[in-house]
Structures
1.
Amino acid sequence: MARQNAVITGWGFYAPAKVMRNSDFEKLVDTNDQWIFERTGIRERRFAGPGESTSTMATSAARSALAKAKLKAADLDLIIVGTCSPDYLFPATACLVQSAIGADRSGAFDIEAACTSFVSALSVANAMIVAGTVRNALVIGAETLSRFLDMTDRSTCILFGDGAGAVVLEGSNASVGIESAVLRSDGSKGELLYVPAGGTMHPADQSTVDARQHFIKMAGNEVFRLAVKSMVDAAEEALSLANVALGDIALLIPHQANVRIMDAVAKRLHFPIEKVFVNVQRYGNTSAASIPIALCEAVEQGRLKRGDKVLLVAFGGGFTWGASVLEWYGEHDWDRATLSPLDIAARKLGDLVDRVRPL
Ligand code: UT7
């Protein structure tokens, strides 16, 4: 198989209907809308309702992404779900999605790198497509962190939200695609942001439940400081690997944890804040889902057109962080089901134009 680039041909997201406004937390803990908004930029976030879970939200996002790509689930080769809040320890959430959408010949596995999971999953799927191992992949970031929030801890419960975002990645002869991916980690800082119990180190028992050890614990200040530095480093490295100048980036889509982190990253990079996509005010920190949801909204708002360079950058528990430069491909205007010889010729011509364009 000839070497191909991986391009995003479909995208979709799901946000649960239940809106939790800052004022809703005033009834639970000693906090207020002003503090939350000034310190985080968050106004509201979504919480999954009864019967909703990471896999159900991931499935909704996946269906939208497949519809946009005009790709049948049965033609999928691979499903990767990036999540740190899976439905079960196992089976993988990706397998639940595979079954729900009827992707009968697809491989499926999860990737867990906390808020960096989507960027990690995208990097793996890209590598597999470029290597010719798979033709296409459904890459999903999905989280239900509300189920791991200690509603008596004001320093964490106000930060996180639920949701899912998905993209379809396909091999293409077009010159556009994922141009670089940088993944980094520092496991020595794991306990600055983690869920202490429920795994093999501290299995669930009455004492772990009584000690509220099944909820997210975070040393916010230290996470903040390292997030800014690491995101800047990863962004610079991804740009350099892709041989792309910062000035050529049309849109920076950072992980949506805190508007002050995003401002600080843009400032340190000397990148114009108007070109940074921000929707944390409406969703809070949705961890692995934040970048794909933001990507979908950026497209919906007409902020990306074919050929635009996009910089994704993430940071999360682990610690993990990473960045990716990609050139936006976007919606294709051909229908696979009725692909005529003329359509195929037109597509080939489009790819050829793409290929000679940079010459
Ligand atoms: O997605 C993975 C990466 N995660 C992140 O990037 C999160 C990074 N961290 C942050 O975004 C910020 O550190 C927080 C938003 C979590 C906290 O903001 P901060 O400016 O670092 O506040 P702080 O932790 O230094 O706390 C300042 C004060 C403390 O009171 P005292 O000790 O000064 O009296 C806190 O107890 O604010 C208090 N505080 C609150 N007050 C009202 C903490 N949470 C709240 C709250 N409402 N919800």
2.
Amino acid sequence: MITLGIEGTAHTLGIGITDGECNVLSNVINMYKPPEGGLHPREAANHHADIVAETIQKAVSDAGISLKDIGLVAFSKGPGMGPCLRVAATAARALSVKLSIPIVGVNHCVAHVEIGNATTGCNDPVLLYASGGNTQIIAFANGKYRIFGETLDIGIGNMFDKLGRELGIGYYAGPAIEKLAREGDKLLDLPYSVKGMDMAFSGIMTAAVSLSKKGHRLEDIAHSVQETCFAMLAEVTERAMAHIGKDEVLMGGGVAQNMRLRNMIESMAEDRGAKMFAPQPRLCIDNGAMIAWLGHVMYDSGIRMSMDDTKVDQKFRTDEVDVTWR
Ligand code: FE2
């Protein structure tokens, strides 16, 4: 069945179309970039609302199909920013009614796992999900995807963005920080904030800003921030793998594109006889194809939703999803 998926949890409006074998027929990704300052949910939602109709048309045309070929519409029900989620949900409901096709609302974090499972060849991984809004270590155990560790304050990507703004290197600063870090060689002292299986990132940002005020090179600060934060992620991911006995680790989210993070996770995995998997970049970041695919998987397993079930849920937890398809 051909499924159209609408992603709209935060900065990205994504429309993806998949078939029943997880072939991605199209995957249009449009990221909102604030003209200045940080991401404002209402402004991001206005951006999504302005372009959602034309983006759906583009995805349909890229896929080489027509609207009547679509058998199911899926959308990101949560977690995320309320105004953005409502744009995605409203567009999905409109398509469902107009085309008389079923609708399924999906959990964004679980979508990252399932697109990885379907496209990388991994089977039962621990997902290291590192993005702007989310930082979680997720794995399937006892009938649900469970969160084994997560940030206690902000997502790691959000921290990179805030740090980028403080240091004057722009917003969506992850790639700029990665580039600077390659030129850094001094490991500066930053708080290593692992608390049990959880992590905290905002104190690291405050400490990094104060290092900058003391005159340290941006390159050394970027290097030290990456080394510290990625070591924290690797430690928690490794402990989750050891605790539940999994030998696969899957990367997901925008920060999972960072090559230094991938190298650290890959060598951690190799040291314990495990394997790292990473979806191709456009399926790793927020995108509509992963929403379409999870919608298909859920529908295929018998899940049906009425319009009443399509209310968005900003705090939709990964472990609230009944995983009926595994
Ligand atoms: Fe995401």
3.
Amino acid sequence: MDSEKCCDSGCTPCERDPDGKEPLDLCNYVGGEFVCHSGDDWMNVLEPATGHRFARVPLSSEEDVGAAVVAARKAQPAWGALSISERADWLDRIADSLEARYEEIASLESRDTGKPISLARAVDAHRSIANFRFFAGLLREHEQEVFKMVDATNFVIQKPVGVGALITPWNLPLYLLSWKVAPAIGMGNTVVCKPSENTPMTADLLMQVIDEVGLPAGVVNLVHGDGVGAGAPLVAHSDVDLVSFTGGTDTGKKVATSAAPAFKKLSLELGGKNASIVFADCDIDSTVAGVVRAGFLNQGQVCLCGSRILVEESIYDKFRDRFVDAVEEMRIGDPSDEATDLGALISGEHLEKVSGYVELAKQEGGVLLTGGEPCLPAGFEHGNWMAPTVIEGLSSDSRCSREEIFGPVVTLHPFSGEDEAVTIANNTRYGLAGSVWTGDLERGKRVSEALETGMVWVNTWLHRDLRVPFGGVKDSGVGREGGRWSLGFFSEAMNVCVKHD
Ligand code: NAD
């Protein structure tokens, strides 16, 4: 693209800063070109840590969505006709180019989300690159399944589904977008991405990378905007064949309602209210460290966070005291400081929601052990700050113990015996993940299997192997992504049965 122009459509409203690298006003990416959206509506993107305006994101419309879907449809046949190893090579090229921008990804993600820079590096930048690399490797290893009968052979062919809508949330922006884009295009689909309007910066960076490496036009398209203006029309578009959505459960319901009548292939990765179950025979030092990390990583804004901590009665007091000490030792403040453990919450609106749950916890009989107050580090008075908060004394039936808060707030609950631990853990509409902390690995596996979730970790948390299935049950979602499950979701399996002579 000509750096003198704001975008390839030749219009002028988009501003880029003088060196042309950092867009202040973002553009959509459609058919291999950066283009302005059709309307005049914009949303300010604010840095969560400071409240400063960071950029403006276009609020695209149905018309913009339609143009992106047309571009994706046009590109699909040629892209789908490439061999799987040719598409794997493209994923590696994207990974190489992202790798060259590792620091830029981390810095943009930290500014855009308010998360500490060390976390943005280790988790967001690292995984975004790893996702493309991993799926490139998996595609190359992918072998056609063959089932032999006495008198015939079945060949399973995995065809592209067509045009995919990929919709992502704000907590792990590029990490989650790349987790969808890589397997989707790897299996021969073309896509239209709709990242969260709150955190559009690294999605824009990914489009720059895709443009630089010269990916065929229309294979990956991106439409910025909010859920109502851009997300809903994308899901509803009659020429979209599949929808991969990660976000809140209530939004997931709307997406499912819209996609169902057209029988679109649908994957929903939704909210969670996960339990960390601590048995008396655990290694207390590593368990306290692990459960603090599970509770507060990314300010508790990870769908997998263990926000309900169930502790066996006999060590409840000891664990609680050690846990609260460890929480109070976390350093909260400037996300760009290497030493920071906790940054800001995504928005003022979200801070209000999380603070509302702390007030509700008090009404429900909860006792605050630490935190509970918005905290404003010096120099960051206009950001969205909340001290890490630990609450005890709530009934496991209370709303705060069962609903997703999605912030730096955890509740502690004593239990006696495995059965009670499992009953409390399952006492929620959600079923995403959990962790079990015990010195008895047989018990760890037994309790894990009794949990109504899609994933459980024993004596660890968020220890990810990209080959394994990822997803939830109950109100946490439908379907699985990850490894070969992603390849399965982003393709249509067709069986060809050939009768022998
Ligand atoms: P959200 O549901 O508000 O938004 C997610 C995305 O959907 C955004 O891009 C948004 O613009 C879009 N959207 C909103 N309304 C839409 C509609 N009607 N049709 C189509 N798209 C629409 O979620 P959020 O606040 O961005 O993210 C937080 C939620 O995401 C939490 O509940 C968290 O647990 C969940 N989450 C789940 C996973 C998982 O893998 N299960 C991972 C990360 C986050």
